[in-house]
Amino acid sequence: MSDSEEEEGPDRQLKLVVLGDGTCGKTSLATRFAQETFGKQYKQTIGLDFFLKRIILPGNLNVTLQVWDVGGQTIGGKMLDKYIYGAQGILLVYDITNCQSFENLEDWYNVVKKVTEESETQPLVALVGNKIDLEHMRTVKVDKHQRFCQENNFSSHFVSAKTGDSVFLCFQRIAADILGIKLNKAEMEQSQQNHKMEGDHVPWPHQGEVQQLSLNC
Ligand SMILES: Nc1nc2c(ncn2[C@@H]2O[C@H](COP(=O)(O)OP(=O)(O)OP(=O)(O)O)[C@@H](O)[C@H]2O)c(=O)[nH]1
Ligand SMILES: [Mg+2]
């Protein structure tokens, strides 16, 4: 009972909504973060899925992240506004090998703006390029990503749900930004180390791999 844990206040809760086209990897990202697993098999999200994960930010601050994993097919549907409502953070996710998934983020972001225009507090928006394990098949130039971030004041992230690369860091940075907590370099490096997948992360370029030419958007 005398544990210092007992003296902590209640957890902060943050609602994070994950948006983007079907197959860009939203569910994979959420499951990698919350359950540290990855499945190759695609199973379309119908409507919405939820994930909860408790993290600890510097200063021993416990934060529970509610991750709302929205199905890509919900765009244009009646429920999307309701899913977005009240979010403190929005993850706009695209697949770096799929131009269309990047271009369509404009439409997703327009829905976010429409829902939040009347709100007192605006959600933090993060642009997340997923599937960086497929860097050799990238079609969305990093420049384009950066420009989209600068124009709209998004935070910028590149991740791989498959290997786990930068996934924890992405959620940790978003939570810290929302709460106005600064992560120092050592803390960011630490979370990269702690959440590195064993065995299956091979940094690009893979040895012996021939770079593939693909059409850029
Ligand atoms: N190589 C690679 N494949 C990935 C990655 N993330 C997801 N995938 C694959 O991409 C496919 C789609 O992933 P999902 O996470 O189901 O996509 P989603 O965005 O949730 O799709 P909807 O539910 O339809 O909106 C699956 O076959 C995943 O295994 C990644 O980082 N790298
Ligand atoms: Mg899904």
Automatic annotation (TrEMBL):
Native species: Anser brachyrhynchus (Pink-footed goose)
The protein's name in its UniProt record: Ras-related protein Rab-28
Gene Ontology cellular-component terms listed: nucleus; plasma membrane
Family matches, as Pfam families: Ras
PANTHER family: PTHR47978
GO molecular function: G protein activity; GTP binding; metal ion binding
EC number: 3.6.5.2
Family: Belongs to the small GTPase superfamily. Rab family.
Cofactor(s) recorded in Swiss-Prot or TrEMBL: Mg(2+)
Membrane topology: Lipid-anchor
